Each structure stands twice: as structure tokens, then as C-alpha cells.
Amino acid sequence: MDLEKLRGKVPDAILDDIETWRGSHPLARLRQTLETQKNAIPFWGEAMVARHIIHRTDKVPDYEVPTRRGRAADFRVCTDEGVLYIHVKFLRMDQASQNQGDLQSRLKPLRKISRPVLYAIVFYRDFSDAEMRDFYQFSKKLLEQGFEGEYSFNDGRGQTLAKCGVKPWPYTRKVRLVVTGACRFVEDVMRLRRTLRKAYGQFVPGQDNLILVSGTWSDDVAEFQEALCGSGPLLLPGPWDNVSVAQSIRDDEAFWAEGRHQESQAAGWFPFSAKRDLTRFRLWFRSDDYVPPIVGRLFGTRSGHAGDAG
């Protein structure tokens, strides 16, 4: 795609910066990818991070730096504070999730119900709009009124359309959904944890590494925090306004739980948008025992400077 055709849709400041990434420029390959890839959205996320780094440091980061086992970090940044390897991930939707996008939006409110249970659903066939509305109300009643056990959801002729099970689930404070059968979606928290593990596989051992995740599908920062720190973690304020420190993790399924993924000390989320000149980052540190100074230099914000990254 000719990037000039995006004028009016993407801020001129972004396009003007990317226009300079030509020839021997370290980000020339990223610019070429933005022009040639049919689905370039994930790479726009990388471009947003690259622009942010340049604006913060006046230095161009190294791009696609080899790490181990044939893998690569998206960026390497070198400053007076140290060296940081950055792994940018975009939360993709697989085809099944795209086809069932409406299902996700309809059932998602159930996951906000404050009850530590697992709600497992098996759909026997696709639902009409009216059937899905009725099923949502059926499920909401089960979950809000404290029912447990197995249940069937039938149509007006007595045909079973779905079977459901409610059982205690001590790893969360809110409803955990598992959906299978003719209709399905992959829960955002589970997909985010897989994304975090994939990024971890690209780490440079013994160096400061930062995972940054974005996406248009799961734009709820709370879901990223749950994937990283689990449900109901004890978080303390960090050294910057947009940083939290995971003081206590109670959920043993979390990415940082039980001493797993020790090389990962910091991670962040940013909402994807190619329509805003500035990118806002939210960061978490594993503990306050070690806070990589370079992470704060690049992504931390102080009061009164929220426009920088906040």
C-alpha cells in the first residue's frame, strides 16, 4: 500500500516520520513491510513503538536483532542507562475468533460477574440473535443467583441448544468462561498468556528484556494485567505514574506466578491506534527489587507528562 494514500486517516506526523525510513535507514525494512504486507496492522504496532523510542531518545533502535534459536527481538535500544531488548506482540484473532466476534461481545459481560466460578459452555449449533439473547439471560441468572452444577438450554421445542456447567474456581474472583462446540471463542486472558510465552521464547538471556503487547480485539488493560499477574494481585505504585509493581500474585496460572519466566521483569500494554500521534503505555514490574532504569527512561511518565507515554 502506498502510505501516502493514508493521508487524512493517519496523522501526518506519523507518516512524515515513516517516510524517512528509506534506503540504509535501520527501520527501512519495517517501512517496506508496512507498504507490502496485506495485513500490516501488527507492524503498525511496531512502528508506533519505534517512533516513541526515537522521540524519547533521539536515537533509532536496532530492528529485528537476532537472539537465540533463530529468533529475533523486534528492537534493541542502547542508552546511557543500559541496553534493552523489546519484543512487540500484536494480539491476533484467528479465523475462528473473527467469525465468532459477535459471540465474544455478547458473552463478555458474564466475565465481569463477581463470582469465583468456572462457567463451561458447549454449543450444539449456531444461535440466532433471539436465541443468543435468551441464552445470555439464562446464563446471567445462573451465575448471579449462585447456581452450581450442570444445566441444559433448550429451544421452544425442547431441543437442546447448549449444555452448561458451573463449578467453583478458586483462581479468580470473577467468572471464567470456557466455550466449545459449534460456537467458540478463545478467552482473551488465555490468548494473552500464550502471547507472553511466545515473546519470552525470544528473550536474550542475562539482558533486560521488555514485552509490549497491543491489539484491537482485547483493548481492556485489566485482561492483560490478569494474564500477567493473575486475578486479584496485590499491586503497589511504581516509580513512575504509569507503572505498577506486582507485590503478591495469588493466581498460579499467571505468567509471572510461582517463579516462572524469571528473565521477565517488566511488561507493558498499549492500545493500538494509528490515528493518534502519541502512544500511551501501561507498565508492570515483577518486583521493586530490580527496576531496569532504561525501561523508565523509555516508557515511564511523571505527573504532568502523561502525553509522553502515560
Oligomer: single chain
Kindly state the percentage of residues in helix.
Answer: 25-40%
Strand content: 15-25%
Largest sheet: 8 strands, mixed
> What is the number of strand segments?
12
Structural class: alpha/beta
General form: globular
Q: Total number of helical segments?
A: 9
Runs in which pLDDT lies below 50 for 5 or more consecutive residues are 94-99, 304-310
Output mean pLDDT. 84
Strand order of the largest sheet: 1-2-3-8-11-12-10-9
Span from first to last CA? 31 Å
Q: Give me the Rg, rounded.
A: 22 Å
Number of domains: 2
Structure description:
The chain has helices at residues 12-19, 28-36, 41-57, 95-99, 101-107, 129-144, 188-200, 221-229, 293-299; strands spanning 62-66, 72-79, 82-90, 117-123, 149-154, 160-168, 176-181, 208-214, 234-237, 243-248, 266-269, 282-285. The longest helix is centred in the first third of the chain and has 17 residues, at 41-57. The chain folds into 2 domains: 37-93 and 189-299, no CATH class; 95-185, no CATH class. The strands form 2 sheets. Strands 1-2-3-8-11-12-10-9 form an 8-stranded mixed sheet, with helices on both faces. Helices cover 29% and strands 24% of the residues. The protein is globular. Helix 2 runs antiparallel to helix 3 (41-57) and helix 7 (188-200) crosses helix 8 (221-229). It has 310 residues and is an alpha/beta fold. A hairpin with a 2-residue loop joins strand 2 and strand 3.
